[in-house]
Specification:
This protein has a single domain, classed as Amino acid/polyamine transporter I (Up-down Bundle). 70% of the residues lie in helices and 1% in strands. It has 15 helices and two strands. The protein is globular and about 70 Å long.
Length: 447
Amino acid sequence: MDTGPRELPAAAAGNPACRGGACAAPDGESTVKVGFNVLNTIVGSGIVCLPYALHNAGFAAGLALLVATAAMSQFSLYALVATGKRTGTDHFSSVTLAALGRPGYHLLNWSMVVDMVGTVVLYLMILGDLATELGNRYLPFAVGRASVVLGVSAVVVLPLLFFRNTGPLARYSVVSVLCLPCILLAVVVRAPHYAGRVGVEFPVFGPRILPAMGVIAFTFSSCHAAFPNYTGLRDRSTAAWVRATAFATTGATAVSLAFAVAGYLAFGSKAQPNILENFPDSDAAINVARLLFALSLVLTVPMGFYPIRDTVTEMLKIHPERHGADAVWEAACTVVLFAVCAVAAALITDLGLAYELIGTLSSSVVNFLLPALVFLWAGTDVSLARLASLCRRAGADGGERRSLLRASGDGDCAAVRLRDVGLWALAWVVAAFGVWVMVLGTYNVAR
């Protein structure tokens, strides 16, 4: 397979604004706005489950896993776009097909559907729980959870699902992300008032570390939104994408650590899959946090839903841009898919099991295993065979002072090649992590 550098189709061949892999799209968004979009994608419903995951993983192991998973998530976002540039593709399915062929393509599509449907269902489950609790506290009549989920889904969320991509939602993502400090502040301030009622221990490892790894993997799920956000950039360069995703990953890590530690210190082993459920409904500050989190989820659901629609319309060959199909088919697909998600969210109530199962079964594949394999097969020139060849060549040189990876006398070339080897090695680590969580994590959740 030819893996030489080529431009993304989105760069529009012949467009003078596109140079060297960067394309200035007048209708695109700034790096900061796209960074907020990605941050909004990462910091969704997963943060409320982190104290629960911290208990199951163990305090020390859980914190280490959270930071390591964030770093691997950042690599996966980079790997997909970098490989897309080399293979001339601008869609997760397309780049996987180019790199891994039909087996990888089908594995991705089915894993993506399971992962993203599960993600949207989780968002709607939590949204329903929050809205129901607030409604029963402040409304003069009782409301049922199922009717709240279906009503909010149809009236509030569905109208946000008919844009062409996530670009028009960037300003709303800023609003959603700005809710997070308020939610975090409420939890951090109010949690100490409930501390001491449960003994809190700080073990290195917890009782269910593998399912907890699935929850943490789910929390940093963002690869489904890599290309929709990348193509929404005004400056479509790798450097701009790295800046946007680094901002998003750093922010998500800080928020996640604060939320996880504050919740665990207050409730320890009694932490619920939704930490806000540990607080009584009479706590006014937490009720404000519940309201803001519900608003944030309303604005986050579209970030999880658009990739589902893109994947399904690609599988059915009814995508308006890539297959020239009538837009009415895409709209019909939007309604049917979202109706399935809303009904599932109304019926399913075991939030902890849903987090663990989706995280281990599909998030591990979509966000770690496949992006790493795509990069290894088509995103880099480094391979084990090439490294072995260079080792033999270096040995034949009789110990001359020469970098193993230097193809010429250019020192910059040697530095770039060394960086490539580092990325290649990291890709193998990320792939191994994805396999580990998928196989052993799913087994531990299911048994």
